[in-house]
Amino acid sequence: MKFSKLYAPTTKENPKDAVLPSHIFLTRAGFIEQIGSGLYNFLPLGKMVLEKIKTIVKEEMDKAGAQELNLSFITPSDLWKESGRYSVFGKELLRFKDRKENEFVLGPTHEEAILSLVKNKITSYKQLPLHLYQIGLKFRDEARPRFGLLRCREFLMKDGYSFHSNEEDLQREFDLMYKTYSQIFTRLGFDFRVVNADSGAIGGSGSKEFMVLTDNGEDDILTCQNCTYAANIEVAKRAKKECKDERPEANYASRFHTPNVRSIEELADFFKINKFYTIKAIVKKAIYENESKFIVFFIRGCDELQEVKALNAANALELQDANEEELIKIGLCPGFIGFVGLKDIEFYIDQELENEKQMIIGANEKDYHLVGIDVVNLNKNRFKDLVAVKEGDCCIECGAKLKKSKGIEVGHIFKLGQKYSKAMNANFLDENGKAQAFYMGCYGIGVSRLVAVAIEASYDDKGCIWNKILSPFDLNIIISNMKDEKIVAYANNLYENLKKEGIKVLLDDRNERFGVKINDFELMGFPYALVIGKNFEENKLEFIQRKDLKKEVIDTNRVLEFIKKTVL
Amino acid sequence: MKFSKLYAPTTKENPKDAVLPSHIFLTRAGFIEQIGSGLYNFLPLGKMVLEKIKTIVKEEMDKAGAQELNLSFITPSDLWKESGRYSVFGKELLRFKDRKENEFVLGPTHEEAILSLVKNKITSYKQLPLHLYQIGLKFRDEARPRFGLLRCREFLMKDGYSFHSNEEDLQREFDLMYKTYSQIFTRLGFDFRVVNADSGAIGGSGSKEFMVLTDNGEDDILTCQNCTYAANIEVAKRAKKECKDERPEANYASRFHTPNVRSIEELADFFKINKFYTIKAIVKKAIYENESKFIVFFIRGCDELQEVKALNAANALELQDANEEELIKIGLCPGFIGFVGLKDIEFYIDQELENEKQMIIGANEKDYHLVGIDVVNLNKNRFKDLVAVKEGDCCIECGAKLKKSKGIEVGHIFKLGQKYSKAMNANFLDENGKAQAFYMGCYGIGVSRLVAVAIEASYDDKGCIWNKILSPFDLNIIISNMKDEKIVAYANNLYENLKKEGIKVLLDDRNERFGVKINDFELMGFPYALVIGKNFEENKLEFIQRKDLKKEVIDTNRVLEFIKKTVL
């Protein structure tokens, strides 16, 4: 394609509020443009990348035996009411009414829609398994759309849904999707990890996330240095933490005057013990569909509360911070909260504290702590996994050290089990003629997000660095001086010859200065450039690798062969 | 593909409220499924057809030099307010608010969005022309969604927008799109006509519709039997109508007592004249953005009012029928309305009545008509093209007879001129450094609608009849008896061999009776079937053409060659 015809408006100015390289460079290089909060247009270059991603996703999904379809983006609310998610999905679910006051949602995911589709159509175990997928629009009304394509509101997703007659067959498909997704992200050229994950609003009995490792990732993931264990920090487990420091000795439940000792640091200092032997309390306001209540979470003083784990323990829609006033109102003493005074208050304790002895904890009384507390004789249900696993903690599988990295979620596969099929009464007849709810899996890839992920994984301070698989063009030919007829003629001729060889060339034939053209090449980031410039008289051309900006002088007589060998 | 794996739930029951073959058969054959009013899922077979259509559309658009992009489906309302269409587009424009109470619309078309995109990016005539297009979702909140995919609410559209520095260049692109669209619809295998059309809510200085001829078309089109003139009835013109019958003689404006003569038929009978010499009045309530008013339209007694022409004459958003009570209230006498008593009422007269003499018209007085009325001395602006052209009327270009057909609109190309660019202040600098608003064109194809159009154009009482271009499969191999191992083995072997030849085969390997399989073949309508049945022992197979259900016996030893020759 000739650059003079390409619609790719480049700019030197960063988009406002942009902090991530992908947001900045994709916008500046004319791949995407924001049209509203969390709403993006894909310009021709962005669209080309998107199509390449879609093709690879489709090829691998088809190879795995899934069938492509398109579900209506606009979904009647009734389906969401049937599954129960209409009320619990929160404000991300955009609800609206049509001209006849009927209620609809903009589909943020399509479990309900797909179940309504197969219900009463798939009636026998003989018709199973079945895997249907689409690559289509989604909308999630994010509270704070940001990071360009990484957290936008309208986006393109590959969502697949599978149906099975039993748990084992669901597991087989889940494993197949694990392989299929791995193949997709490998083909796309990404460095990724598969991690255990929280199932969030989708739910189900187990899920894995595919994370591309990047410095700017939104997610923290923990990976074992020794074995294959890897997990999102939201669900990461660890071998039970131990401490070699001395345990504080004391009689059972001695009450100590600890004036102004409110923080865990102060407490450990005061008693000259390791924070490991203290218990801290975090109080949250838990929001449910029709009510809210305060919940206290107890963890070791040396640990941090993992919010998603706490949310799941509380089985709430949302957790909000509680302020001191609120604490006092329910009879808690800020800075000194402990097991005392919790009669009417729900509380959970981190599972590692079960049966722990001789601990120090607040007395729920100003300037007093209790020493020598044993965490025993409590209901099993009180104990939950609540702590945020840290780098350096030990692997639950093998005991080796865990390493923390930043990742961006690009895929997520779920074993839904019968969650939705039971709610929506979607049954089939099994081998014994008995009605059973479908076993379901669902599998998502954030297709439009991948365009940004590719750049987060590969950029420098000048702009994008596309890999060969995703780059819209294989080669950028730069005509240094449009007034030099010989150079122009040569470049056009070479361009035509390369096109015939199946090489996708962008010929920069714009009436622009050489500096502008080189800057645009570096900003747009196609893998290679060939400059036809001042040494052309001596039959010399300059070949540039975008990745490291390494330059090489090529003789005109071997240029065709060299390019064919290098760029494809 | 093996039928046992394909998700294509067929049914014998017609979808409720379905009247059109495409709606009935596409649903019954498992190509599409309705999920709500005017909302459809495309199942795997429907999706395959859709993809074939998209590919052809994309190939031809790219060949014409247009560049593909994707505009955000959700569009900020501000853009629509800027163009002025937010208030005038009517209820088809679905408006909603997000969680922050910001206003958006579901894009029914994207003139505003594309202008906002290129504005301040395309700043010089040197960057023109430019043509950008997308194949994306649209939503129009139809008052009465019906006819399956033909009048649904969420649909897939190819919409392209071109930008030019002058009228001539716009005309050049318009002509190019005329050719491109003709090529697309030819490749898709449609019998179509290009007709003059009303520009509707899109507006602009001229437009052409592409109509596929079908018995069940929503549109009436008139085509000259002699020359190339063709037009949608909404805008069709004719040579001025003439009448050889005698003109009624009378003194100027004689008042005649015509008791109970209210209809044009009764009037013509009463005076024993041709209806051509009478004038009838149709009163409509015209709805505007902030007001409504009654308007009287006068046409010959032998003609019918064309509603779209009347709407354009009134420049209103909508025309509603006026009832007798309303007429009386504004001083009109139902059944006897004429030019008398219109002092404060807006009225228009069909242009063919200009300077007409000795006409008969109501006296606006019960049981009285005026005879010998001359339609003279009226302001030019009163005269508009108002009548519905009929079959048998004469062509405005050559005078030959016009023929009426039914058509379905599949494409529409518009010369928008500067309508939107002026409203949105989208300018470029011309050769003289002067700011000018872009000259725009826009070009639409109803992509998902084409799936239905293909069936409206080709079906019989048993089901769909796909042409080779759009059919999801080239051949349907039917195993008559799954218990006959020899037949099953032979069929599987043939299936594998044909796949290697690049033939798309659906192998019906379901444990179903032969009758069910044949019925499904006829309902789904792939071009050919090969039955491996009872004569297989004698090395005979049965080959069926779906189009005419013609059967042919094929020897197994020549089957591969025969199929390769026939189906591709």
TrEMBL record, chains A, B:
Q: Which EC main class describes this enzyme?
A: ligase
GO terms classed as biological process: prolyl-tRNA aminoacylation
A GO term for molecular function? ATP binding
Q: Which domain of life is it from?
A: Bacteria
Q: What residue stretches are annotated with the Aminoacyl-transfer RNA synthetases class-II family profile domain?
A: 33-472
Principal localization reads: cytoplasm
Q: What are the entry keywords?
A: Aminoacyl-tRNA synthetase, ATP-binding, Cytoplasm, Ligase, Nucleotide-binding, Protein biosynthesis
Q: What's the catalysed reaction? A: tRNA(Pro) + L-proline + ATP = L-prolyl-tRNA(Pro) + AMP + diphosphate
Assigned GO CC terms? cytosol
The answer to keyword Hydrolase applying to this record is: no
The record's subcellular locations are: Cytoplasm
Q: What is its EC number?
A: 6.1.1.15
Kindly give the SUPFAM superfamilies that the UniProt entry links to this protein: Class II aaRS ABD-related, Class II aaRS and biotin synthetases, YbaK/ProRS associated domain
Function, as annotated, reads: Catalyzes the attachment of proline to tRNA(Pro) in a two-step reaction: proline is first activated by ATP to form Pro-AMP and then transferred to the acceptor end of tRNA(Pro). As ProRS can inadvertently accommodate and process non-cognate amino acids such as alanine and cysteine, to avoid such errors it has two additional distinct editing activities against alanine. One activity is designated as 'pretransfer' editing and involves the tRNA(Pro)-independent hydrolysis of activated Ala-AMP.
Give the domain note: Consists of three domains: the N-terminal catalytic domain, the editing domain and the C-terminal anticodon-binding domain.
Q: Which family does it belong to?
A: Belongs to the class-II aminoacyl-tRNA synthetase family. ProS type 1 subfamily.
Q: How does it assemble?
A: Homodimer.
Q: What is this protein called?
A: Proline--tRNA ligase
Organism taxonomic ancestry: Bacteria, Pseudomonadati, Campylobacterota, Epsilonproteobacteria, Campylobacterales
Gene responsible for this protein? proS
